[in-house]
Amino acid sequence: MSTSILLFTFLQTLANRDAEFTLAINSFHCGYLDNFMMMYSGRFIWIPVYLGLIVIMFRNFPPKPVFICLLFSILLITLCDQTASTILRPMFSRLRPANPDNPISPYIHIVDGYRGGHYGFPSAHSANCWGALFFFFFVFRRRILSLTLVMWAFLMCWSRIYLGVHYLGDIMCGLLVGLFCASVDYYIFQLLLHQTANQLKPNAHSCKLYSPCLICGIETAMLLIIAIFTRFSF
C-alpha cells in the first residue's frame, strides 16, 4: 500500500511539474512568436526540405539504395504516427493542455483558436520528427545533417508546447517512441539489406549532404521574416 501511495505521489508531482513547465513556455508569448510558431508547427511547411533531401540523395547515390531508404522512411513515419496516435493516445487518454475539458485550459494562451485534437500523449509530431532524425543519423552518419535535424526537431517540439497543444512529457515520450521505431526500422533495414545500407554511409568520396541543411536554414529565416508581417490562420 505504501509503495502505491509513493508511486501515486511521484506521478502526481511529475504531472504538476509538467503542467508548470508547459504554462511557463506558453505564457512567454507575443504576436510575432504566435505567427512564427504556428507556421513552424505546420506539417506541410517543411516539404521543400524533404524534397531537397530526396533530390540530393538521388544526385549522389545509386537509385536502388535511395528508393529502398525512402521506402523504409515512409514505413518509419507511418509506424511512429500510428503508434503515437492510434495505439498509445487512446490507452493513456491524456487531455491536451488547450483542450476545453482540461482544468488548466483557462490559463493556456490559444493561438488562432488552435487547440489540436482531444488527446496529446504522446506527441505524434515529436515521434515523427525524432524518428526521422534518428533514422537518418543511423543511415547517413553526417554530422552537419544530424545537427541541423536536431535543431529543427527541437524547435518543432518547442512550438508544440508554446502553442499549448502538448506537455513536455508528451514531447519526451514522443521522442522515445521515435527512437524505438527508428531503431527497429533501421535494424530491419540493416539486417535485410546490409549492402544497400552500407552504400549510404560516408566514405572518403561521399557527399556532405549540405543542401537540405541550407534549405532548412533558408526556410526558417523566411518564416522569421514572414511572421513579422502576416498573421496566418491554420
List the defining traits of the structure above.
71% helix, 234 residues, single chain, mainly alpha
Overall shape: globular
State the distance separating the first and last CA atoms. 48 Å
Largest sheet: none
Q: What oligomeric state best describes the polypeptide chains here?
A: single chain
Helix content: over 70%
Class by alpha and beta content: mainly alpha
Output the number of helix runs: 9
Per DSSP E runs of 2 or more residues, the count of β-strands stands at: 0
Kindly report the average pLDDT value.
88
N-to-C SSE series?
HHHHHHHHH
Radius of gyration: 19 Å
Percent of residues in beta strands: under 5%
Q: Uncertain runs with pLDDT below 50, 5 residues or more? A: none
Describe this structure in words.
It contains nine helices and no strands. The N and C termini lie far apart (48 Å). The longest helix is centred in the first third of the chain and has 30 residues, at 63-92. The chain is globular. It is mainly α. Helix content is 71%, strand content 0%. The chain has a domain at 61-106 and 121-208.
Structure described in brief:
The protein has 234 residues and is an all-alpha fold.
How are the SSEs ordered, and which strands pair?
Layout: H1 2-27, H2 31-40, H3 47-60, H4 63-92, H5 124-140, H6 143-162, H7 168-192, H8 194-198, H9 210-229
Protein name: Phosphoesterase-like protein
InterPro entries: PAP2/HPO, PAP2/HPO_sf
Keywords: Membrane, Transmembrane, Transmembrane helix
